[in-house]
Amino acid sequence: MTLLLVMIRLVTAPQIQPYALDRFALRQRITMMVNRYEVRAGGKDGPMIAFAEQKRFALKEQVTFFADEARTTPLFGFLARNVIDLNAAYDITDGEGQHLGLFQKDFGSSLWRSTWLLEVPSQGLTGRGEERNQFVAFLRRFTDFGWPVHFDFTAEGGQPLLSIERQWALRDSYDCTLPSASNGARLDWRVAACLAVACDALMGR
User: Which of 7, 90, 93, 147 is deepest in the core (most CB within 10 A)?
Assistant: First the structure.
């Protein structure tokens, strides 16, 4: 019966093209040894399109996104290049190990507000993301009571790429928006999902 349920999940799971998603929700599940996240298309009540898992206390930060909770089919993920690095860089790959892009902590800027640098060669994009509210960023340095944290990612030319917004909640929940450019292009949602998890799981790094 368990095998049958897994097969049904895999068959019925929605297949979202990399550049077709304009909005998704990310919700964290609190567990003892791992961080788990649901990615839901369209919002918190939408269908789950990926399930992420991050092991705590790993030497190298790694998060893998799967097609379902059974973790039978890896879809994409990210892995730190080094064990300890103040300007930590993370490579994003698809389920076959093909490189999709990378993001990197801007250590100097992150002393004031968390800041990430982004590269997506397949889309010809180079960008930057940071916390929107400097005051909240300052308060978080001392204690985090679930402040409503917002991140904005933009391309070098100023084009908005991704907005990640955490509302007040008992557990972390994010609304993620991927605006389209004038030519209709959007950021690869797999890259956006990696950034959303990083902005939560790696916020204190």
Answer: 90
Spatial distance between the Cα atoms of 98 and 96, rounded to a whole number of angstroms: 6
Closest CA to 193 of 18, 15, 11: 18
Q: Which residues of 158-181 are buried (b: 16+ CB within 10 A; e: fewer)?
A: ebbbbbbebeeeeebbbbbebeee
pLDDT band at 3 (very low <50, low <70, confident <90, very high): very low
Separation CA 46–CA 69 (nearest Å): 16
Taking the C-alpha atoms of residue 27 and residue 37, their distance in angstroms, rounded to an integer, is: 5
By DSSP bridging, strand 173-177 and strand 23-30 are antiparallel
The pTM of the full predicted model, rounded to 2 decimals, is 0.85
Residue 8 placed within a domain: no
Residue 63 domain flag: yes
Of 178, 168, 126, 124, which is closest to residue 145 (Cα–Cα)?
Answer: 168
Question: What are the structure tokens assigned to 187, written together?
Answer: 């950021």
Per-residue pLDDT tens for 134-184?
A: 666 666 666 665 667 889 999 998 999 999 998 766 567 899 999 998 777
